[in-house]
Amino acid sequence: MLKILCVIAFAMLPLSASAAENQQLFNLINQRLSYMKAVAAYKATAHSPVEDIAQEKKVVEKSTEQARKIGLDPKSVGPFLKAQIDAAKAIQYRYRADWLSVPEKKQQTVPLDILRSRIAKTGDAILTELHTVLSQGGMKPGDLALFDNAVTEPNLSATDKQKLFDALLEVKLKP
Prior knowledge:
This protein is mainly alpha-helical. The chain has helices at about 1-10, 15-35, 35-45, 55-70, 75-100, 110-135, 145-150, 160-170. It comes from Phyllobacterium leguminum.
């Protein structure tokens, strides 16, 4: 009984500073992924492919430079950026596949340049928050449950989530 009470009391404690920062980071990742339905809708309406290699290259270059500027190791950020892009494309493909069977009714689209601006802004916030998290001791594999609870995009598979989380664990501060 005492053990149960201790567990309940521990669960009721406020989040520690690092847990709160991790939560904020995970929320930002979810926010970035939440834009993918609108991106998929725009691309479907415009009859554009999901994959845009030139845009991906721009995003990776800009984000890698931003990571370097704020004190993240650019080499360790690369796999995380790729995992984010892969997850984003997977989400878009799944929405588009779903819409083949059940078309979205009166799908209003947001211009792609506006969406990309929002995604870039959120991406920069992710890198900044990631720097804060790493400066406060970083994340641990045990943070996966918190990540799973925060990253709730419906078209993100468990495998996609795990790949994204694993890549996130590998990001380091600049030496």
